[in-house]
Every structure is written in C-alpha cells, then in structure tokens.
Design goal:
7 strands, globular, OB fold (Dihydrolipoamide Acetyltransferase, E2P), seven-stranded mixed sheet
Length: 191
C-alpha cells in the first residue's frame, strides 16, 4: 500500500548510490529510515497500511503473524525507536525502507526521485541534502511477504527535502583523550 509521509526526520540515508547490504551479496539498494512521532497522522497511516497488507497476505492469520514478527528488525520494518541508541530515535517510531537497484534477473531499477522544497528541482549528492537529521516528505510502500522470508517490509520511490533539522552524528570521530601539545617545542615533540 502506498502512503505519503509528511515532515518526518530522515535517518541512515543511502540515497545517491546504492550499496550492498552485505559486501559481495550482489544486491545493491538505496535505503532510508524515517522517524515518525507515535500517534501522528503518519504513524496512523503506517499502522493502517501494515494491517491492510497483512490481511491481504495472511488472511485470518494476520494478527498472529504480526505479533510474531513485531520488534524483529529483520522481519518487521516499523520498530520502536527506544530499542535503538541512535540520535533522534528516542520516543519515536522508525520505518526502515529499502529500494532494490537490481531485479533478480539483473535488470536495473530507477533510483529514488529526490527533489527540493519546490517538489520539482532534482537534488544530487553535491546539493548537501537531504541529509541524516533533516525533515522530508516521502512516498513509501508497505507490503508483506510470505514464505521463507516472511515479513513486513517497506520501500520508497521519492523523497522531498522539507526543512532543516539538526544533523545526526554518524560515527563522528572524537578528539577526546588527546593532550594539548601546542605549548611544546619541536624538540619536545620528537619521538
């Protein structure tokens, strides 16, 4: 089921070049996680789409299937952000989305559409946006898979940069622990 998320925070974006989930797996993909306020219209739309798709896929067993998968990040795309220790996740829900770059037969898929606030102007890696921590609007698709790889999944087709947000610190290196050596002369710094 396709839905439009409005004014959600972007996390872990891989938007300009697809990356293999596991190096060498031959399955490049674009990825994005959208942080959603619990109880918001976005949250209600996601939950309704999950329930609808679950009923289509598993019928009368939908509720049991959803309960069994809930909280399993590899089986359920919508998780409680409090289960993760990432910037911006506290007290939020996180919708993890992926978009395959290649079909099983090797055919290439189009990249996600990335546009600026005007809804038309394309964004590139050189634009500097969207970035982790900014706010975006996103066209996502919720679907369920049955069989060996059963789960509740999400994909995305387009992202619109909506507004600035404090950038998330993605493994930013720290200088903590270094001594101040600025007052030492060259001879004292020689090892």
């Amino acid at each position: 089921m396709d839905i439009l998320l409005k004014n959600v925070r972007l996390s872990f974006p891989t938007l300009f070049e697809p990356v293999e989930f596991k190096p060498g797996d031959g399955k490049p993909r674009w990825s994005a996680t959208f942080l959603v306020e619990p109880g918001s219209d976005n949250d209600k739309a996601i939950r309704a789409a999950i329930e609808s798709e679950a009923k289509i896929t598993w019928g009368a067993k939908a509720d049991a299937a959803l309960k069994a998968m809930a909280g399993q990040g590899n089986k359920y795309c919508y998780i409680d952000g409090n289960t993760k220790a990432y910037d911006g996740y506290k007290d939020m829900m996180a919708l993890s989305c992926h978009r395959a770059a290649k079909a099983k037969n090797g055919a290439e898929f189009a990249p996600p559409l990335l546009v600026d606030t005007d809804g038309k102007s394309p964004l590139t890696a050189k634009s500097g946006r969207p970035y982790a921590g900014c706010y975006v609007n996103a066209k996502v698709s919720i679907y369920c898979q049955s069989g060996e790889n059963a789960g509740v999944r999400a994909s995305f087709t387009a992202i619109q940069y909506a507004s600035k947000g404090e950038a998330f610190a993605a493994n930013t290196p720290s200088a903590d622990g270094f001594d101040d050596l600025s007052d030492l002369g060259e001879d004292e710094l020689a090892f």
